[in-house]
């Protein structure tokens, strides 16, 4: 359906760290899009386990061999940033059916606020139990999180 147009997608989020589920979504997204911009949103009210520049460098390392993936930091609405970057789509991942209502609402908001379509990909079953929050919490307690992050960060 989306293969006939040249397209860029924004994959938004403040990943702490970038999990194997997110990695999988981006890799599969590359089958649909010409370029994916992993957009790290600044959020001054959110406690960060990893400083924003550390996250940016980690994600760049993960995708160092993939020229069609860029990493960018933004501090505006995601739809506004998508437009600034020339993106036609926002790519999002969903871990379970419980996330559906939230993701549907986000897609509707993206459409209303910026006339940007949202593409939602399910996380593969083997990664569905892994959330950024879980990994962040385990890391904060000094636990080994290597099984939850892409091989390039291990």
Write the layout of secondary structure elements.
Layout: E1 8-12, H1 20-29, E2 35-41, H2 52-62, E3 69-74, H3 78-85, E4 89-94, H4 100-114, E5 117-122, H5 132-140
Parallel strand pairs: 1-2, 1-4, 2-3, 4-5
Give me the count of strands.
5
Q: What is the terminal separation in angstroms?
A: 36 Å
CATH arch. level architecture:
3-Layer(aba) Sandwich
Dominant shape: globular
Reading off the top of the CATH hierarchy, the class is best stated as Alpha Beta
Assembly state:
single chain
Helix-strand category: alpha/beta
Give helix and strand order, one letter per element, not per position.
EHEHEHEHEH
CATH homologous superfamily caption? HUPs
Which fold name is given in CATH as the topology? Rossmann fold
Question: Residue ranges: pLDDT <50 for 5 or more in a row?
Answer: none
Strand order of the largest sheet: 3-2-1-4-5
Helix content bin: 25-40%
The largest pleated sheet is described as:
5 strands, parallel
What percent of residues are in strands?
Answer: 15-25%
Average residue pLDDT: 85
As for the number of domains, it is 1
- Helix tally equals 5
């Amino acid at each position: 359906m989306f293969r006939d147009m040249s397209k860029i997608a924004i994959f938004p989020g403040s990943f702490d760290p970038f999990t194997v589920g997110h990695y999988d979504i981006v890799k599969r997204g590359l089958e649909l899009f010409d370029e994916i911009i992993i957009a790290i949103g600044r959020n001054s009210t959110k406690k960060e386990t990893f400083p924003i520049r550390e996250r940016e460098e980690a994600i760049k390392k993960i995708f160092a061999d993939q020229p069609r993936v860029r990493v960018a930091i933004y501090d505006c609405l995601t739809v506004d940033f998508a437009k600034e970057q020339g993106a036609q789509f926002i790519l999002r991942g969903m871990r379970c059916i419980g996330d559906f209502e939230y993701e549907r609402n986000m897609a509707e908001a993206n459409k209303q606020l910026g006339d940007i379509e949202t593409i939602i990909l399910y996380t593969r079953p083997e990664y569905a139990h892994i959330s950024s929050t879980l990994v962040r919490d385990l890391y904060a307690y000094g636990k080994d999180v290597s099984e939850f992050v892409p091989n390039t960060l291990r």
